[in-house]
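Incident log, structure service

09:12 report received: a user says their structure output differs between two submissions of the same chain.
09:20 pulled the input from the user's history:
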Amino acid sequence: MSDSQCESGLSLSETPSKRTQLENGSDSLSLIKKAVVVLTRLPEYKISALRPPTPQQFYSEDELLSSSDSDMQWEPEDDSSDSDFSVSTNKQKTAKLKESDTTRPPAPPTGSNNNNNVNEITPIIISSAFAYCSHEITKVRPNLPEEEVKVDMVVLARKRPMRWQRGKIVEMVTKEDGRVKYKVSFEEKGKSLVSGHHIAFDTTPKLEQLYVGARVVVRCQDNKFRFQPGILAELPSRKNRLRFLVFMDDHTPVYVSLPFLHLVCRPLEDVLEDVSDSSHKHFMKQYLKDWPYPHLTQYRAGQALNVELNGVQQRCEVQVVDSSLIQVVFQDNQHKEWIHRGSIRLEHMARFLELKAAEERNNGS
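09:34 re-ran on a clean worker, output below:
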């Protein structure tokens, strides 16, 4: 750089409008220097690293427009992440959905009784990405060393298919084929000889041990001494208010916090082999196959729909929408329960999946 060019550099104390003359032969060039502030937007992963999300931090505007799990922005009154059911029932903000992420089931036949009632609107079914970070969407078991299982260790063991209880391992039995069985003495009463996939650690798991598809046992909300088996379906994210979604083996979905979870000690290679309900096993197989793009129906509070109960489609109304779940009340008996928005019990979802399967068969043939 020449001396004149060096002199033209602005110091921090100089005013932006100061003029400097540069001599270039017979011509002179007048420059006006201005202070410029350049803002650089950090990538999302850097922001997350600097400031981990909290339950109060929900979707950004961009995330709302491409959100796959909700068309509402919820503003909870409090953070109840330690409860089994953290439900917010406050203000709602409708966001537009991309057409490429949505599918509408076919319209009902001409002459059907819909009366143009807003409660009868067929919901949109979406299947866009559920999560934005790699750790939120993983469904691969982490390559970690197995924790030791030994005699005198307190565990949770299966007493019946949907009832696990706390007990102590009193003996380890090795069968002729090499399989190891565990004799468990329950705290309440009784003993049982069980396999490794029918006992769970009594301790709280570490986050790095958890993944979508993990075989877990969940402490019951109404009885801290009873536990039920299930499969982990969602990891904590801003979309589900930092909770874990678990599908119980009887198809019941529940949002829980980390202290309610317990990892099965020696899960089967295919965890679905341990699920006895054939319809739920089929649902979970499709759910894990589709993840992180699960099919979800979009409902609003007050909307009427048909839901299967005791083998029959029955009329009910949406009470609350909470992330991937809806709470419905049945008209006949006022029975309330939580249902996943992709459940095969929903008439709209069942019809959608039937049409999708028929289309795949036609394409295959």
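09:41 both user submissions now match this output. Likely a transient worker issue. Closing.
09:42 reviewer note: Residues 3-32 form one domain. The chain is about 15% helix and 30% strand.
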